[in-house]
Amino acid sequence: MTHPGKLTLIFPLAAGDAEAEFRGFAMAGQETLVHRSLRAFLPYTDRIEKVCYIVLDAHARRFDIEARLVAETHGLPYEIVRLSSATSGPAEPVARAVAKARMAGPAIVCDIDHRIDPTPFFARIAEDRATAALAGLW
Questions:
Q1: Neighbours of 62 (CB within 10 A)
Q2: Which of 39, 55, 114, 123 is paired with 32 by a 20 to 30 Å CA distance?
Q3: pLDDT tens string for the chain (138 positions)?
Q4: Residue pair 70/80 in contact by the 8 Å Cβ criterion
Q5: Beta-carbon count within 10 A of 105 CB
């Protein structure tokens, strides 16, 4: 259920194939990429309904993603959407996960490889509630 004024934060982590290493728990300084990427959004936790992590099912099993995310999510509610197979490009995992999880409402899609200032995203959504999704491009 989507709460008015709240959004879903989507992190596609299903890159590569099942044999590739899972990059979400790679270290960036003293923290994992997952932890670092979410940190920028902490000032906005009152506006985040949940965080959605999109992972390959094979990675979820091989790297114990569910157990490890508990320590990485800063206490925010989260959902893991598992995809059964690798995807052909960066937009496909998001499209498949949105359909699979039947997501609705505003969302921000963000890559874990980059640190961004999410202030403009939240400002845009507050300004126009009809905004359905925002994707950072770099």
A1: 13
A2: 123
A3: 456 678 899 998 876 665 667 778 888 889 888 888 898 899 999 999 999 999 999 889 888 888 888 888 888 999 999 999 887 777 888 899 999 999 888 888 888 877 788 888 888 877 876 765 666 655
A4: no
A5: 15
Compute CA 124 distance to the chain's CA centroid, rounded to the nearest angstrom. 19
What the block records as the tokens of 98 is: 């949105």
Q: Which two tokens stand for residue 78?
A: 């989260």
